[in-house]
Amino acid sequence: MRASFVTAEAEMHEGLGLDAYTQCTSPIRRYGDLGVHYQIKAFLRGEPLPFPKPDGEQSRLVAMTREAGGLQRRLERAANAYWLREYLRRAAG
User: RNB domain location, by residue (predicted)?
Assistant: First the structure.
């Protein structure tokens, strides 16, 4: 199974066999989820979608969000490694 990825276009979810799929959690945790929340709320209210179809701006936002997510994961791994080394250093004496 492929690793997850974000696009501005709806794509199939291979593992679930769905034609389209989105993931959203709290918009304060992941910036990209804010747009998903706007889309879902507008759809449920019967309002025009705030982002009706992908354009260059959405593609740039998706790329920026993907890049920030990668940076966040690298920083988290580096911080975890640092604190593990620090713990071991202190435990050793």
Answer: 6-45
